[in-house]
Amino acid sequence: MQTAEQIRLSAEEFLAWEETQAEKHEFVAGEVFAMTDARQDHVIVSLNLASALKQHLRGTPCRTYIADMKLQVEAADAFFYPDVMVSCHPEDRLAKHYLSHPKLIVEVLSDSTADYDRGGKFVAYRKLDSLQEYLIVDVDNRRVECFRRTNQQDWLLHDYIGEVDCELSSLSLTLPMAEIFEDIAAV
Fold first, then answer.
1. Structural domains of the chain sorted by starting position, each given as residue range(s) with its CATH number in brackets
2. Which residues of the chain have pLDDT under 50?
3. Which side of the chain, N or C, has fewer Cβ within a 10 Å radius?
């Protein structure tokens, strides 16, 4: 993540400022960070997941959102752009500019954000009471790390690699890894 000219803003100032920007920015505790461009594999995997989730959730109160929808994590004073997220919360269905109650968040790793997606961003995401699963997708290694919230509010890692199916218990969905990585050239 790159800081955008070391701008320090309140959350309200950030939302107003970002509406005037050509590029997307994330916001954490007063700091603004410019988003980097995604490579083709990143976009394909994000689309594969979003398509499968949308298809599975058709006819339910849940909706699938892609990278252009902001997520507010109020407890972290932050706004992010997850690659994919699902919300079933009625307030989010009425939201115009950002969601606040996702059930599932997916981040597809890139070289520049991998450490942050696993570290600081996940720390912020864990503050969302609604969040039940967090997927980190490693395209290069054909791996999906699914962090699932337990009844004791701990986070349990389910590591999917190879030909196994990825289980998303929060949505009662099993996704074949081949579907997640469809159209990605073999390494």
1. 1-35 (no CATH), 38-180 (3.90.1570.10)
2. 1-4
3. C
